[in-house]
Amino acid sequence: MAFNQKKFEDLSYTISCCKCGISIIPNCFNMCNRCKMSEINIVDGIKTSYIIESCKKCERYHIPPKKWMNIADKAELLSYIFVRYKEIRDLPIISSNFIETEEHSKQLILQLEIEKESIKKQFKIFFKLRNKQCSDCDKVEAKQYWTSIVQVRQRSNSKRTFLFLEQAILKHKMYKDCSNIKERKDGIDFYYIERKGPHKMISFLDTQIGTKTIQSNKLMTEDRNSNKMKYKFSHSVEIFSLCKDDLVIIDEPLAKKKNVGRLLIVSRVTTKIVFVDPLTGKTCEINKQVFFAEKESFRVILGSKDLKLYTVTEIEKNYDRKSQKSDPTAIDCFITSDYDDQIHCKTHLTFLEDGDQIYGYDLGNANLHFIDRDQFKVIIVRKKYENLGINVQTEKAHDREYQFFLEDMLFDSEMRKNVNIFDKTNQIIENFENFKL
Q: pLDDT at residue 143 above 50?
């Protein structure tokens, strides 16, 4: 039966404390609060020493019999203790906090305050940390560290699309379920202990880029007596082989179908490829079904590593005689380089101004027999930007590809949604539009 203190408080008389004799309102112990605190121990019988098992390698905590839990902060650690130990969870706790300990002590101290029978009491619970290797890390140590593998590949000389994909994987933490990650010549391998692990990664890749996935399996062991077999599963994921700024020639039937020229520049690569005609400014889209079904129809003739630097000397707007307005899709311009005289060409970059530096493909000196050199002397691809105040943290050399990748992110809001951008203090920039470089 629960003690009803209010029933006693409503009484109009007092009694003497059975210990010290002062006048008090009657209660079930007939003691004052001070005597109750000294005579009655509400923490008596509560266990104050426990053992917590954690995996030293992956830093997860054990929940018997087979579960393991990732813990990022003290709030999650407290939740783990309540889940792990029912006797602590059932205490009438009114406050709790962890007491700082030395890291090498392998000990946690949790200070609790509980209230029972109108008595409050603080006490400490000690947790001894003990190493126990989880089953996943056991498999890694035994060289059986994967059941499934996702092999992401891009057959391209330029890896700018892969740079974006790596950053998207980092932002969305798609690497958390992997037992191992290895860099390969044309991509990355993601290893998983469980068979269902790759499906989340493959679904994520499908939302970011055009992919083609082929699944296969290999029998590793077979026990015919118990009819048990062990397989390893491979998922080969091929992503678009084209990268932004690639110069591509497409088959004539496809060009007529899309109402564009055969020579196109890759303007954007996501779940679709967006091409732009450098002479007219017209754009067309190719989805992954068409691309992988007619892959031979798309041939990269020059990539971003072949880009040369030019300077715009004069801009000529194209005017429509009927509307007397400038053409919004293409302009004429004159450009020059250190070793060439002025060259006249058309470009889809209608925002260019006199004096701008640009990157373009020199088709006049390229060994391409199928190109009309009178029409295509130089194809302008992108503008060169100076002093944007951006940098990339990488162990690799800071080449021009990285610079192009950073510029693409600065001017493409859709790309920025899937990439973490940091300021000089290594804090993530939440509102990039209002951020000043």
A: yes
The closest alpha carbon to 268, from 382, 370, 137, belongs to 382
Q: Return d(Cα 233, Cα 198) in angstroms, integer.
A: 9
How far CA 69 is from CA of 64, 83, 385, in Å, comes to 11, 11, 48
The predicted structure's pLDDT at residue 395? 52
Q: What is the pTM of this model?
A: 0.64
Q: Are strands 93-99 and 187-192 parallel, antiparallel or unpaired?
A: unpaired
Query: What are the angstrom distances between the C-alpha of 421 and each of 311, 387, 409?
Result: 31, 17, 9
Element (H, E) at 73: none
Closest to 111 (Cα-Cα) out of 131, 81, 73, 84? 81
Backbone angles phi, psi at 116, to 5 degrees: -150, 130
Q: Dihedrals φ, ψ of 399, to 5°?
A: -95, -175
User: In 64-118, where do the E strands start and end?
Assistant: 67-70, 93-99, 107-116
- Cα angle 253, 304, 424 (rounded to 5 degrees) comes to 135
Band the pLDDT of 435: cuts 50, 70, 90: very low
Contact status, residue 108 vs residue 114, Cβ threshold 8 Å: no
Which stretch of 92-96, 264-268, 388-392 has the lowest confidence by average pLDDT? Answer: 388-392
Q: Is there a contact between 312 and 354 (Cβ–Cβ < 8 Å)?
A: yes
Residues in the chain, total: 437
The Cα–Cα gap between 81 and 78 comes to 5
pLDDT per position as a tens digit, 215-260:
998 887 777 777 777 788 999 999 999 999 999 999 999 999 999 9
User: What type of residue is 221?
Assistant: T
Domain boundaries, the chain: 5-39, 49-135, 145-239, 245-384
Q: 54 pairs with which residues across the strands?
A: 61, 131
| Dist. CA 268–CA 224, nearest whole Å | 53
CA torsion sign for 140, 144, 149, 155 is: positive
Q: What does residue 38 show for φ and ψ, rounded to 5 degrees?
A: -85, -30
Q: Report pLDDT digits (tens) over 1-35.
A: 444 555 555 556 788 888 887 888 887 778 887 78
Report the pLDDT value the prediction gives residue 324, as an integer from 0 to 100: 45
Helix (H) or strand (E) holding 46: none
Least confident of 78-92, 130-144, 164-178, 236-250: 130-144
Kindly give the pairing relationship between strand 263-269 and strand 247-250: antiparallel
Nearest residue to 139 (alpha-carbon basis) of 131, 149, 148, 147: 147
Helix spans in 160-232 (H): 160-171, 197-208
CB contact at 8 A, 243 and 269? yes
